[in-house]
Design brief:
Layout: E1 16-20, H1 24-35, E2 41-46, H2 61-64, E3 83-86, E4 90-94, E5 99-102, E6 108-109, E7 112-115, E8 119-121, H3 127-130, E9 135-137, H4 141-152, E10 158-161, H5 165-176, E11 181-185, H6 192-209, E12 213-216, E13 220-225, E14 231-236, E15 241-243, E16 246-249, E17 253-255, E18 267-268, E19 271-273, E20 279-281, E21 287-293, E22 298-301, E23 309-312, H7 315-330, E24 344-349, E25 352-358, E26 365-372, E27 377-384, E28 387-394, H8 400-408, E29 429-430, E30 445-447, H9 461-467, H10 483-499
Parallel strand pairs: 1-2, 1-7, 2-3, 7-21, 9-16, 10-11, 10-16, 11-12, 19-22
Antiparallel strand pairs: 4-5, 5-6, 8-17, 13-14, 14-15, 18-19, 20-21, 22-23, 23-30, 24-25, 25-28, 26-27, 26-29, 27-28
Region (Disordered): 436-455
Domain Reductase C-terminal: 345-417
Pfam family, one: Pyr_redox_2
């Protein structure tokens, strides 16, 4: 059981506040603390050596050469007068003694703690292949700089593994640079994890129209290098072998919760459970009053989504949740406020702007409500049962506020809009999201179950197969080579899931 905080910290503007995670959410929370009158000692802990920077430009603007990775540093709204402990990740939480342990240095004491540790890129599962010169993930400033240098050098072919938003944006940049690019996607379409396969058919059309060699229902079985350990070839599940110079592994993210395994909080691979006030639950399901969570690592209940705990990997959610958490860290019980931000995200790729509001992954049905794919300007609404829960717009961002109002009002689905550019008749279709438990690429917002003590999904053979990105969703290919390696990797994945840890 965790100890209760001293009563004097409730609603206090002094004391010691520690923020673990020095990125967008951590910085905005620190600024809000100071703006709302916190005068005590403030410490920010970050695993990277850089000042907080903006991640969305890394997959687009930095790769295009419009800006360098050094110029993605986030603007400061105010002087936060903080102690910065950078380049030394947190490795353990000691709740009884109210300390955060770092990879190096002395423990950092706190009276109140905010956890904003976010996510990291999901690596290629074979470490030897992942270490080949030319194989990259894209999450950090360093990643972006390395990929930009390789793309600027003019590789003969780029392989993008995963057709989510990050992978699709990288593929878009490759075509803008005149590079040959192949995208492999395990599902039937790109963006299936975020928007579903029905909407993903439009994303597939865009990619192919712009010259992308798109391989859906296809995985990469192995990456192969030469004697100097430089990437040279990729073997695909469709039987093809590609000569490639660069591979960008865009398989989604992992939440940074391993350091909390024995910390006494309700935390697992899905994230850290908190209430609507951003207060973390402990391992016994009791809400804390001095430990808060915000950003990509938080699992929290949104009133519009039937008690499901959401994890939301959106820029706007990180900002608004951090501001709410910071406010509540200083507020007494009567002055706390709930985080009810409706998730939204955007992406620019292949000459179009894609923007969404709500939680598409909560839906089971989609319907085209305005525009058409032919004119590359459209809006589609998502429904669950008889209620609208999300909407996506292509080159039509100004339409979304009306849909936001419908979602917040729990309006019926399909919506009756009487739009001048709407179809004569609405034809709802299955949205086509991947199975629950299957890792998806940049899903944006994901329902993860209800309640702080809901166990993670039981690991069975079918689920274990879904965890390995090399194995197609259908029957595995009849290829004996590397069969033992994949079997060993599956056993390693099983161990990881049961222990909650990461492989070395």
């Amino acid at each position: 059981m965790t100890s209760s905080p001293p009563p004097q910290w409730s609603g206090s503007s002094n004391g010691r506040v520690v923020i673990v995670g020095a990125s967008l959410a951590g910085l905005r929370a620190a600024e809000t603390l100071r703006a709302e009158g916190f005068t005590g000692h403030l410490t920010l802990i970050g695993d990277e050596p850089y000042e907080p920077y903006d991640r969305p430009p890394l997959s687009k603007s930095v790769q295009e050469g419009w800006i360098s990775e050094e110029h993605t540093t986030l603007p400061r709204r105010r002087d936060i007068a903080a102690e910065w402990l950078m380049g030394a990740p947190a490795v353990a939480l000691d709740l009884p003694n109210r300390q955060v342990h770092l990879a190096d240095g002395d423990p950092v004491p706190f009276d109140r703690l905010l956890i904003t540790t976010g996510t990291r890129a999901r690596p290629w599962p074979d470490k030897e292949q992942a270490d080949l010169d030319g194989v990259f993930t894209l999450r950090t400033r360093d990643d972006a700089a390395q990929i930009h240098a390789r793309l600027a050098a003019g590789p003969k072919r780029v392989l993008v593994i995963g057709g989510g938003f990050t992978g699709s944006e990288v593929a878009s940049v490759c075509r803008e640079l005149g590079l040959h690019v192949t995208v492999t996607e395990r599902s039937a379409t790109p963006l299936a994890g975020a928007l579903g396969q029905a909407a993903g058919t439009f994303a597939a059309y865009l990619q192919r129209q712009h010259g992308v060699d798109l391989r859906c229902n296809t995985t990469v079985l192995a990456l192969e290098g030469d004697a100097q350990k430089r990437l040279r070839r990729a073997r695909l599940s469709d039987g093809d072998e590609l000569d490639v110079d660069v591979a960008v592994v865009a398989l989604g993210t992992l939440r940074n919760t391993e350091w909390l395994q024995s910390g006494g909080l309700a935390a697992d691979r899905r994230g850290i459970v908190c209430d609507a006030a951003c207060r973390a639950f402990d391992a016994d399901g009791v809400v804390t009053d001095d430990i808060f969570v915000a950003g990509d690592v938080a699992r929290w209940p949104h009133p519009l989504y039937d008690g499901e705990l959401l994890v939301v990997e959106h820029w706007s959610n990180a900002v608004t949740q951090a501001e709410t958490a910071a406010h509540n860290m200083l507020a007494n019980a009567a002055a706390r406020r709930a985080h009810k931000h409706l998730p939204s995200f955007w992406s620019n790729q292949f000459g179009v702007n894609i923007k969404s509001i709500g939680v598409p992954t909560f839906a089971d049905t989609i319907v085209l409500t305005q525009g058409s794919t032919e004119e590359r300007r459209l809006v589609a609404a998502y429904g669950r049962g008889d209620r609208i829960v999300a909407a996506v717009a292509v080159n039509a961002p100004r339409s979304l506020p009306a849909y936001q109002a419908l979602i917040e009002a729990r309006a019926p689905f399909p919506p009756d809009l009487h739009a001048s550019n709407g179809p004569a008749e609405l034809h709802p279709l299955p949205a086509g999201f991947p199975k629950r438990g299957q890792p998806t690429h940049d899903p944006g917002a994901i329902p993860t179950g209800a309640g702080p003590n809901t166990p993670e999904q039981q690991i069975e053979k079918e689920v274990l197969k879904l965890l390995d990105p090399r194995i197609p969703l259908g029957a595995p290919p009849l290829i004996s080579q590397h069969a033992n390696e994949i079997a060993m990797e599956k056993r390693s994945l099983l161990h990881e899931v049961h222990t909650g840890g990461m492989r070395p």
